[in-house]
């Protein structure tokens, strides 16, 4: 599960060879540790004329302890160029394609001024909320800039576009939670994403280092891999974790639960009585479940012509149908309260498709459908529904892939490396925070801006 090449290029001999041969150069990514500052350096905030977000963003950044740089300080006359932890640009004032020039004017002089593992964040208005077709076109254009910066800046820098609704409710709290996630090392392996912050109830935590304090969180498939990392990250952030896995994984599951002071539930999600048994457990033990993370998943790979019906059925059942059945029962019994969260794990295979994975890709595209249909349906109940779509993550699952395919999977992304289970866990954590209630209906790829399905 270790990326030996990435370790090698960090050594002196490795650095020399990479330079001489022009080999891929995976940077060491900045990851989150509680108590870390959000950024490795000051932030530079720019805005298009008439932007509506520069002021709230500047407040959010200042409250978060981020130093705001003076834009005038980086001119040629100022001597040593300033280096930034992040460049943020409020593009909400852009109402016509000719206004796009303001993006060039802001980013061009700063293209080399971002620190390693720095952040680029552009904020816009959702095109469907724009007052005119011209404004909608210009706002849509922002995607191209952001995705290209993600590919150009290098050294672990990530770039995202955040569309922020004009509606008032919940927006500023969820904008803050989103910026805190994106600026921090929590988002190390998330790049080239378009994130929508809409209207919805959201409440800020007393302590942003414990954003899930007091929340009851169910994690399925928690015995190992991404699920085990999830249990750890969510518990670190203050959650009471209910860790679920199949009885055969009981020992590993108990170890995970003990490690974090959580509880373990041994249950096969595909058993006919699984939804009621789970609902009974949650009702009896906690009286509710604030966050449901559908992480359990399996692969049974074969090309379609060689695939027996069992492989098809098992994958659809574990990865998709069981999620639907569990949601139905938990919602029907009102165990997910107002302010609740449902977060599902999809995959980039569900976006791009994958040879040998028709069953898996179908199930994972279905998970995206689940987000599309449930998010608006549950908006009125104050429950958000989102998914993450991991790319190549270093787990036992990907360790089994043949070397050449594995190396391709690892390197074919803007960060030239695979992600870690913790990267998926941190992203799910952010979607689960009470402060992120206005982030719903999103599918966030945790793929280092993979070329697949881009
Ligand atoms: P993993 O195989 O290491 O862990 C999956 C866990 O789910 C296991 O502990 C397993 O016992 C459990 N599980 C399987 N069937 C179950 C059932 N019927 N009832 C209860 N638990 C069950 O896999 P992982 O790599 O940690 O993947 C976690 C999720 O992330 C999956 O949904 C997977 O499809 C998705 N994903 C992983 C990657 C990757 O690169 N590893 C990429 C994209 C998506």
TrEMBL record:
Enzyme class of the recorded protein, top EC level: oxidoreductase
Enzyme Commission numbers on file: 1.1.1.100
Species per Swiss-Prot/TrEMBL record: Micromonospora parathelypteridis
Family per similarity comment: Belongs to the short-chain dehydrogenases/reductases (SDR) family.
Highest classification ranks of the organism: Bacteria, Bacillati, Actinomycetota, Actinomycetes, Micromonosporales
Ketoreductase domain location: 215-391
GO molecular function: 3-oxoacyl-[acyl-carrier-protein] reductase (NADPH) activity
PROSITE patterns: ADH_SHORT
Alphabetized SMART domains for the sequence: PKS_KR
Top-rank taxon: Bacteria
Keywords associated with the record: Oxidoreductase
UniProt name for this protein: 3-oxoacyl-[acyl-carrier protein] reductase
